[in-house]
Amino acid sequence: MTTPTGPGAEVVTDGENARRGVVASASTATVPTAATPPRPEVPEGEAPPSTAVDPTTTPAAPGPEPDATTASAPADDDLLADAARTAVATVAAATTAFFPTPPTAPTLPGTRSAGPPTDPRPGFVEELEGALADVESVRLALDVPGAAAARALRDRLTVQIRTHLVPRSQGTELPAVVVLGGSTGAGKSTLLNSLLGEEVSAADVLRPTTRTPVLAVHPDDAATMRTHPIAAVVEVVEHEAVPPGLALVDTPDLDSVDADNRRLAAHLVEVADLWLFITTATRYGDALPWTTLTAARERGVTIAVVLNRVTARAAGVVRGDLLDRLADDGLGDAPLFVVPDVGPHEGRLPEAKVGELARWLQLLASSAAAQRVASRTIRGGWPSVRADLTSLAEAVHRQAEAARALAALTSTTIEAHVKATSATLLAGDAASGAVSATAQERLQRGAPLAVLLDRQARVPTRRGAPAARAAAAEAVGAVVQDALGASLTHLARAAEQGVRGAWVAGGAGASPLLARLDRESVTRTRDARVTAAVRAWADGAVSAVAAVPTAPGEVERAARLLDPYGWAPLVCAAALGAPAVPPALEATWGEAGRAFVADARADVVRRAVDVVRAEVVPFLDALASVDDDAAAAALRGRARALEDLT
After folding, report:
1. What distance in Å separates the CA atoms of residue 79 and residue 319, rounded to the nearest whole number?
2. 3-state SS of the chain: helix, strand, coil percent to 5?
3. pTM greater than 0.85
4. pLDDT value at position 54?
5. d(CA 166, CA 168)
6. How many other C-beta atoms are found inside a 10 Å radius of the C-beta of residue 505?
């Protein structure tokens, strides 16, 4: 049924209200209220019960009695205007139902309610700050399934805890933060400017318009809000028209083409004690705002809705459809305000068009409702915070599992390359080509080192012969070091590429880690490692030869042919597999020559394996940045602790 409250106005009640769960008014403000309870029967002879009026409400002034024509057939253009006369009383009643006041003395208009909206138990704030630290430390470095959603959850939780829950729980009285949010072109900035009667937030036809959000606050609350964490991302503007006890935030568009704007708009919703969702008759069905609206409702955010730019002819249909959508989405109790379309215009809306919304905000601020809104949002948010902490812990656990899989894959891959490295060096592949050719050339008949092959030959001592032998050995050594360096570089690079390929093919979401690996740094480190390994191997061969004490016989003859720095390159060439060298070593050194080669071969394989194994270091360092199970356990512990404390 409908109850007429003024010329051309209707307030939906009883059966219609039961269907929609709201009061629908044809005024500029349409708000929900609790279903009207049945009037109790009054025994005969007793006075009917009195109907108390909330001291914070303002009853509507009675309108003139309509004539028959006006009452029976109101004009379309008059529907919105006529019903506006009853809107203040309707809004006041709805506010009382929506934000019920505990049985205490009412707060007088124009005053602030004392005290914070919550009464946390001892240790609660510390636990909440610990949860914030744990959430902020979550990295979610791997692109495992669900990682993108988990990162968004982490960022949202961080904003929610740092900028909303912690300040609200620290016992400091703060204004209730009312966030004006919605789609592109919904008129958020224009609405804020119109509510304040002054241009405080830029509004234009160019999109995206709002870039730095504006937070408008009464001068009495300015100092408090300038120290609030939200001040880091907004421009704080003082204005006398803002009701004391409220802070009004004009946000970027939820569907902005600018990604930073979209993220900022979504984050500001987390700061809201009350989200004033602003949409239009042509945009209220857009998917993204509804998704955000539903998510906010699930997190306990208190929501009111402004349907902007509504023509009188379309008001009934659009408003009814929106009310049905709100009810279907679990938002049937959200206050709904309708702002009439004023046609093409620039600047602020006429004061009368936003008057009912302004009065409602004033009503919130001038009663205990603002703090009740904050308390309602916080109380409604605790279950979602605990659930979100648990969900984030599960996401962290999946990261840890993926990291273990990558570590196992890395180990398997590098071991395969270690075996390949050993096989390559033991097969003599590093000596094929330049090493074997150079050694053969220096040992052939008539060459400076040919004397090494004949145990009975006299050691040439003619002028220049010792220097020629030393130069020939040095030439062999240079080729050996170049060949070994190239071989180790190739083997190490193959190992690095093998691990990289295994990570890509492993399906563990390693792409972000791989992208952060500095290939140039990896190459520089590898080159330095290879150079050091080759030099250390050559020095080890020198030390091995020098360690043999000089005595008459083979050793004395060897010492007259070459010093340890001359013999070491030949030992290294033989160890790599140059076939012409071992006979020369055995002819001069006998069994000691064979021992030199065996030891040098074992040493080069060991050093090569070390070089190849070191290729996993950047990968393992990257895995160290992945969240572990300890981080997941910490988040679960925070969720349990907050449940106990709330």
Report:
1. 13
2. 60, 10, 35
3. no
4. 35
5. 5
6. 10
